[in-house]
Amino acid sequence: MSQTATATKTSKKGTAKKAAPAEKKIEKKIVKPEVRKTSTTRKPAKKVTSAPTPVKETKKAAVETKPAVKPKTAPVAVVVASQPKTMEELLKTTNYKMFVAQKGQTIKGRITAIGRKSMNIDTGGKTEGIVADKEFDMAKDYITALKVGDEIEAQVVSEENNLGQVLLSLKQAAFDARWDYFTQAMKDDQELEAKGVDVNKGGLIVLVNGVRGFVPSSQFGKELVGKYMQLRGKTIQVKAIEVDREKNRLIFSERHVSEADEIAQKSQALNAVKIREIYEGVVSGVMPFGLFVTVEVPLAKATKDKEETRGQVEGLVHISEISWEKVAHPRDYHKIGDRLKVRVLGLDERTSKLNLSIKQLSDDPWVGIDKRYEVGMSISGTVSRMESFGAFINVEPGIDGLIHSSKLDPDSQLKKGDKVTVNVESVDPEQRRMSLSLVLTELPMGYK
Fold this sequence. Notes:
Blueprint: H1 2-38, H2 42-48, H3 52-65, H4 87-94, E1 106-114, E2 118-122, E3 129-132, H5 133-138, H6 140-143, E4 151-158, E5 166-169, H7 171-187, E6 191-200, E7 203-208, E8 211-216, E9 235-244, E10 249-253, H8 255-258, H9 260-264, H10 266-272, E11 278-287, E12 290-300, E13 309-318, E14 339-348, E15 353-357, H11 369-372, E16 378-387, E17 390-396, E18 399-404, E19 419-428, E20 433-438
Parallel strand pairs: 3-5, 13-15, 18-20
Antiparallel strand pairs: 1-2, 1-4, 2-3, 4-5, 6-7, 6-9, 7-8, 9-10, 11-12, 11-14, 12-13, 14-15, 16-17, 16-19, 17-18, 19-20
């Protein structure tokens, strides 16, 4: 037992002795870094030599090998955003604004598909818009000129159909596009194909590019003047001369095609026109307010090798300038195609048309009338018209006198065309009035 205990003690001592050096080694490992940390290469550099140059280099090297100290930065707080739970929250994160169509609203969109009976348009909404059924048929001509990718305007007819699509109409867009087409055609002086669909007293109603327009009788060339009534169902070439979207006026001219050369000389002819001069012309239109006349203005005299050059200018003979007599309607005096002479009274610079007169080819019959017809003179005349206040008697071209109703026999039945004998009671050249009375064998009752 004592030996065993002794051996045990000895082994413990041996173990203790062996453990002690291990502790010292650990201390060396701990201390050693401290020595390295505190001791730098600067001390050996001072002891190596007294030469100045090597010392400077050593210091420089020591400075270069010194590790850079990073500045301390404050900790950054990381905020984790909550994930969007609804479509509205998701859209807010992308700044996307969804378009919601309203009935009657005009919107812009891009064509995504064109079918045989419908067209799809991306309007920026949750679903595409669609042009279908009658809206598609009404704009079919307009749609044929469109292609996928084109940006167009459309009007909302219904906010949503049973498929969730916005129903759209291109009626207004097609209408606007057609007006733009005619405006550009007029600007480019472009020839257009027109089909006659109806005829009225003023001219020919035509269909051009699916839109109705009008060709006045005054806008037909010499070959068709007076013959436009035969153009129903036929095709002619025209040019747009008036495009007014606000007034819905679309006027075409056949003359600007068939007589383009003559019209090109219009400005030259206008400069050559002389006021009060007499020119020849052709009646190109008959309207309730007057006659349209195409006036032929000589530009160059005829030579042996060349015929006389004439320019053409449109003009109007107002109803009051047709005759010195009272004119009920211009058609009672002239018809389309009639050749006549006119006197130029002036030029309307706004319309570049001439103001013309037929009656002023002759002298004013009222000038000197008081010398030709003295008071008390008996003359013969013809009843020109009957009015409630009396009867007008034509005594010479341009001179109508009035028999007041108070001077007419109630039993007498005068009518237009009757030949009568009258007495001149008064003449007023300035007011252009002549008062007459019937020559009677007996005075009527109530005569004054």
